[in-house]
Specification:
The chain is built from 7 helices and 2 strands, in the order αααααββαα. By secondary structure, the chain is mainly α. Strands 1-2 form a two-stranded antiparallel sheet.
């Protein structure tokens, strides 16, 4: 039985090559990876919500753990020290107070935590791993390449169509072929 989820996830990421892939990913790919992982968390959340509706305890437990696995796995893959991040969030949360948060109704009356005046949010400074790499200029360059390739493909398709149209009038295409040979 493991007591260290972060190290378990790290072993899993290494076993299946996730860390290797991330280490060779471009900034564009890293950003897409982050988006993919957030969609993955949403998918697990949606499945867990459905399990609550279906009153399926097994799937509720599985879904909640899957959300943890994906979140911790994302931090691990991106080189974030999840232990440090956890400790920072935990320490900040332990300075909160029991109270009522107006923007989050609590009809059950269970203890809810609110930020007291002067509360300090946790800092993850120097613990972002390679996440900032996902926002480097490469993203724009790769996007421009994709757009340029698409434009080139469309231009070639248009050129073929134009050649077919003008070919029935003239085998030596000119910009005014249709007008010239339609007269």
């Amino acid at each position: 039985m493991s007591a260290d989820w972060v190290n378990d996830i790290n072993r899993m990421q290494n076993k299946y090559g996730v860390r290797e892939w991330v280490n060779h990913a471009t900034p564009f790919q890293l950003k897409k990876y982050l988006e993919f992982r957030l969609k993955f968390i949403k998918e697990e959340y949606d499945e867990t919500r459905e399990a609550i509706i279906m009153e399926d305890s097994e799937e509720i437990v599985d879904g909640l753990i899957d959300i943890c696995v994906v979140a911790i796995g994302t931090l691990d893959a991106m080189g974030v020290n999840a232990h440090t991040a956890w400790d920072n969030v935990f320490e900040a949360n332990m300075t909160k107070e029991v109270g009522v948060k107006e923007s989050r109704p609590n009809p059950l009356g269970i203890p809810d935590l609110i930020k007291p005046e002067g509360w300090t949010a946790p800092s993850h400074e120097n613990n972002h791993g390679i996440i900032p790499t996902a926002f480097e200029p490469d993203v724009d360059e790769e996007l421009e390449e994709l757009i340029a390739e698409n434009i080139k493909k469309k231009a070639m398709e248009a050129n073929v169509a134009r050649t077919e149209i003008s070919g029935k009038y003239n085998t030596k295409w000119t910009p005014d072929a249709v007008e010239k040979y339609n007269a």
